Amino acid sequence: MAHEVDLESFKELERDIILRVLYRDQTVQSIEEERVRNLKTHLQHLRWKGAKSSSQEYKEKCCARCQQTLGLLLNRGAVCQGCSHRVCSECRVFLRKTHAWKCTVCFEDRNVKIKTGEWFFEERARKFPTAGRRETAGARLLQSYQRQSSKISVVPPTPPPLSESQCGGSPNRLQELGHFRGFNKSVENLFLSVTTQMRKLSKSQNDMTSEKHLLAMDPRQCMGHTERRSQSDTAVNVTSRKTSTPDILKAFHQEDPRHPPSPVLKQDTPPSSPTHSTVFSGGLRHGSLISVNSTCTEMGNFDNANVTGEIEFAIHYCVNSHSLEICIKTCKNLAYGEDKRRKCNPYVKTYLLPDRSSQGKRKTRVQKNTLDPTFEETLKYQVDPAQLATRRLQVSVWHLGTLARRVFLGEVILPLATWDFEGSAAQNARWYPLRAKAEKYEENIPQTNGELAVRAKLVLPVGPRMLQEAQEDQLALNGQLCLVVLGAKNLPVRSDGTLNSFVKGCLTLPDQQKLRVKSPVLKKQACPQWKHSFVFNGVSSSQLRQSTLELTVWDQAMFGMNDRLLGEAKLGSKGGAPGCTDSCSQSKLQWQKVLSSPNLWTDMTLILH
């Protein structure tokens, strides 16, 4: 194909047919160029929408795409690995079948390269840098025809009409547009690089302290760890980063080696006032930093001391308000939380097992430097009387050490099923010896988190004619599993006695395919009544006999925190809670009743675990 093609050797009819094909190919190329231009224009609009302009004032922390203000603790955003900009959760697009994500601009740039085929030419240019632009056979034929048109007295066929948008897609026009947009893109990247560099130079002393191990290394090595370059970064951005590293190192060595503690650690230490108070631990207090750190202690992130001493507390239940009150009196003969320093800062924390969430945690104030602390505080829970028999009270003593490090000093676990709340002697304060943390708590008491009322029905084709059609068509054998979630009661509520609850359903088929559904959220209700319908289509009776239906009740959290699981119930071949044979057998019987009675509603009351 190196030699030129001569159209003079063809006949007039053949030449007309070839020219029609060539002009049609040129039209298709114009349409394709218009499509590519529209994609790149849309991408450029996304970049301009999120670009920071010098004529506007932006806050110090905001999303680089939608300019939404970012928080200090919640919704702080994350840095995109493609462009190194911090974006909010709404401006992230997760890639298919992976946990990786990109911002909206990087994702759109990736789609443009895929749809236009630029990725192929970029990879080809990397492997063969000296290779020129690809020239098609159609372009060579047209050039040959135009050079020979002056010598051949042949009237070319009339090309098909082109629209104005297609005519605007000529190579010269595209080249001028490409240079213009390339210049705008370079200016935009240069301005964003300078803005990013100025923000980095204005970091606070605490940020530099937290990265001390990176700044103590060689500048080249430090740059290799911290620099995340964008594909659109210019040479000015790279040069400015290299020159700024010695300045940061120089500023770091000039500072005092004794760095003050972080403001987060100061806020993490609770006050130690010994005044008498009634603790209502809920709402914003459990969303604080100390609550997050204290919840980590339940996962083993703590130190142990030699457990000694006793704790005095009383338990009272108010039937009218459904309030369980634990009056923490005093402790004596506690072990040192820091044996070398002979120091102990004790406080008491309680849970109503099996609920170990932050909403179910109650704490007293911290007493400083004492082995015999006096608390005189009352911790309250909102518990239904029917749930007391399934709960266990866990009272544990902890030491708050340096840098908010927790040390376990002992605990007491009391089953409330055998507790006499009506007796006057039971309401008096008692002394309980502290014991070491149990590796595995006793499971002989069935743990329930309430009840869930549902109605279920398996819809199958009825009648001899429909059954005959179902045998002819395999798809007609599939029916519907209809489930109505009526309501729930005796759920573990918050400290204010309310819930923002919803229900999730998951039907696991024999081939491990999962069908998921979700109900709306009912806010500020302790006994929600959803009356919401779940419909699972395309399931047969034989599949359901080997399937498992899992229903979970959740409490919607606020401020972007994780939702709290209130309880779950399972129906099917693997139904029931682990370690509870009665519940397992009952769930299997209820599931068999639904399958054996098609087209009939079956009412069920499921125990949540």
TrEMBL record:
Residues 4-123 form the RabBD domain. Residues 149-169, 224-284 are annotated as: Disordered. It is found in: Endomembrane system. SUPFAM superfamilies: C2 domain (Calcium/lipid-binding domain, CaLB), FYVE/PHD zinc finger. GO terms for molecular function: calcium-dependent phospholipid binding; neurexin family protein binding; phospholipid binding; small GTPase binding. GO terms for biological process: exocytosis; intracellular protein transport. It comes from the Eukaryota. Residues 307-432, 462-592 form the C2 domain. Keywords: Membrane, Repeat. Pfam families: C2, FYVE_2. GO terms for cellular component: exocytic vesicle; membrane; plasma membrane. Residues 232-246 have a biased composition (Polar residues). Signal peptide: none annotated. Its main location: membrane. Residues 250-259 have a biased composition (Basic and acidic residues). It is a peripheral membrane protein. May act as Rab effector protein and play a role in vesicle trafficking. Binds phospholipids in the presence of calcium ions. PANTHER family: BITESIZE, ISOFORM I, SYNAPTOTAGMIN-LIKE PROTEIN 3. Monomer. Binds NRXN1. Binds RAB27A that has been activated by GTP-binding via its N-terminus. This is Synaptotagmin-like protein 3.
